[in-house]
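Task: sequence design from structure.
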């Protein structure tokens, strides 16, 4: 007995209005009173629901459920526990993604591939922020009508992104609940007790005339994956000299191990290679850094490690994830200015909005953030993220994501009765570069094997992009792949990761946090290392007047010789099945790990054609 929405959802009638009427309906049904009386009762309830529509929403149509495919939060499969309702005066920030017309999305994708394909005549002709805005062509009235709705609902502030496709809304929790016809709760992480986020504890809705302008409101239903504590405080077993002065780095991966394995140059980088170059790491709730920790690491391991710029909140407080990111992207590329982009909530949409709103965003970004495609991750959410990734790539920005630390099963697990692999997002997005994890095969610096818990596989949502079609086909045809049963995975999906780097528990990284050196593992270590490599490659190109590499995947798949192939290991996460690392591209390690010397020659040998702007509006 709920009122149907205008398109795609059902609006729940308010409990306070329905409760007195439910006994009447039950009596009617039990006593088999005539159908006319039953319909009269239903009409009374529907009228009560309609009367409950907030005054600011009257005349805007019925409630329409957004992200309707997302299943309710389940404590059985989630690492987040629902706590109390958020107090009414608590301030919340919402990212409202406005609808971008389908033909404009297709045009953005076309331009992205043109400026990112080394063989295309428009390679490197990246767009300006203004050109991206013009290409998207989001009508101003779409934004204004949506803005007016949230202002009427009690928003303190509504800010539009420079591209005109996102609104950042700040309002009280009570006002947000009324505007979205939902309930907001605090959720706490089961393993990281200090991590708490605000999310919707029920579906959310918008009035029909507003809903038609909005793709989604984020992140109300998404729950991020946090690194396991089992990946920190690890001991190392490596049989190589400890190049750091700290005894705690014995047997662990250090900057010199990375430099030797990935063939980084020993000599100082000329100043011209740092001009206009930049890189960044993304950090989320309470993952700050201490300058003292960074200096202690740098002094011990003989690297210049410092943060040059911070976007967002800054506190002198050490976090394992943040200091891992900073210490190792700078271990690889100490000469390149580093920006930390901090987001107080675990909001990927807020982060993408932050970087796309910058007039001159850092050229390379490393992000250790992820979730399962199937868990609280709607098609609308992934589409919105993909548009943001494409916008960044079209502007010449490289985005690298860690591929995940739970093998093929993801955070949700593969299941028992109906077994199915769980691909990761954003790692499985076609518009970012996914970085998997490896271990050394032996106890010395040398050949690597796939880490059994490294994320990899095939998307259940996105088709195989053209740039990797041949590589994926070759993998699936190879008898060495020993592919898992077909019912476990989607053979037509985008394959990931694209590349890899050390990250397994056999080869944890030496990280300084809070005055102590400890071993830390995970693809959260792999991603900043590979990001640092590509930032250095950008430096080589920029010093010769060449454009930045931008979206990396078309280059990577045309140049597999720039990587050290990994041909052993399987990412089965200790279960019976996973994807094997074999010669060439595979769904455990991509094309393998970086060879900076080879990559340097490749990026400098490309013929960059500079001509008219790539945009067509």
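Answer:
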């Amino acid at each position: 007995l709920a009122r149907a929405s205008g398109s795609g959802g059902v609006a729940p009638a308010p409990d306070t209005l329905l409760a007195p009427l439910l006994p009447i309906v039950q009596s009617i049904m039990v006593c088999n009173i005539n159908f006319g009386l039953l319909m009269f009762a239903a009409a009374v309830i529907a009228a009560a629901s309609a009367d409950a529509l907030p005054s600011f929403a009257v005349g805007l149509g019925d409630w329409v459920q957004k992200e309707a495919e997302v299943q309710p939060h389940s404590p059985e499969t989630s690492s987040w526990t629902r706590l109390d309702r958020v107090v009414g005066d608590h301030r919340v920030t919402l990212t409202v993604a406005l609808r971008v017309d389908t033909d404009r999305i297709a045009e953005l994708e076309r331009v992205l591939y043109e400026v990112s394909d080394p063989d295309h005549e428009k390679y490197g002709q990246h767009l300006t922020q203004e050109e991206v805005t013009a290409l998207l062509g989001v009508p101003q009235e779409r934004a204004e009508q949506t803005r007016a709705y949230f202002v009427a609902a009690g928003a303190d502030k509504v800010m539009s992104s420079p591209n005109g496709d996102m609104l950042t809304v700040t309002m009280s929790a009570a006002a947000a609940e009324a505007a979205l016809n939902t309930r907001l709760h605090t959720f706490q992480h089961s393993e990281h007790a200090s991590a708490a986020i605000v999310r919707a504890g029920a579906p959310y809705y918008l009035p029909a005339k507003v809903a038609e302008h909005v793709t989604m409101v984020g992140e109300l239903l998404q729950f991020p994956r946090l690194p396991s504590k089992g990946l920190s405080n690890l001991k190392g077993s490596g049989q190589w000299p400890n190049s750091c002065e700290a005894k705690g780095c014995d047997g662990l991966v250090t900057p010199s191990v990375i430099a030797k394995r990935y063939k980084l140059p020993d000599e100082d980088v000329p100043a011209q290679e740092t001009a206009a170059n930049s890189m960044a790491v993304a950090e989320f709730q309470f993952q700050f850094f201490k300058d003292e920790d960074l200096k202690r690491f740098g002094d011990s391991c003989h690297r210049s490690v410092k943060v040059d710029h911070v976007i967002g909140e800054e506190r002198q407080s050490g976090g394992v994830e943040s200091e891992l990111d900073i210490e190792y992207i700078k271990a690889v590329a100490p000469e390149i200015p580093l920006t930390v982009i901090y987001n107080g909530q675990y909001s990927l949409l807020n982060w993408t909005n932050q970087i796309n709103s910058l007039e001159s965003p850092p050229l390379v970004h490393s992000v250790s953030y992820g979730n399962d495609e199937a868990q609280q991750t709607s098609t609308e959410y992934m589409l919105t993220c993909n548009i943001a990734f494409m916008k960044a790539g079209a502007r010449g920005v490289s985005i690298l994501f860690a591929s995940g630390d739970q093998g093929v099963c993801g955070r949700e697990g593969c299941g028992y009765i109906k077994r199915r692999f769980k691909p990761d997002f954003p790692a499985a997005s076609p518009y970012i570069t996914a970085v998997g994890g490896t271990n050394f095969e032996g106890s010395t610096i040398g050949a690597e094997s796939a880490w059994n818990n490294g994320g990899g596989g095939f998307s259940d949502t996105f088709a195989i992009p053209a740039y990797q079609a041949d590589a994926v086909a070759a993998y699936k045809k190879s008898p060495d792949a020993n592919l898992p049963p077909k019912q476990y995975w989607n053979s037509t999906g985008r394959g990931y990761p694209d590349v890899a780097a050390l990250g397994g528990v056999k080869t944890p990284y030496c990280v300084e946090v809070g005055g102590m050196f400890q071993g830390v593992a995970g693809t959260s270590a792999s991603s900043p290392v590979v990001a640092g490599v590509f930032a250095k490659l950008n430096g080589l190109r920029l010093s010769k007047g060449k454009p930045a590499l931008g979206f990396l995947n078309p280059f990577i798949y045309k140049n597999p010789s720039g990587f050290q192939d990994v041909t052993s290991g399987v990412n089965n996460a200790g279960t019976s099945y996973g994807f094997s690392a074999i010669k060439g591209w595979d769904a455990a390690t991509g094309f393998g790990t970086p060879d900076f010397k080879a990559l340097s020659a490749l990026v400098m040998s490309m013929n960059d054609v500079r001509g008219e702007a790539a945009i067509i509006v």
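The radius of gyration is 25 Å.
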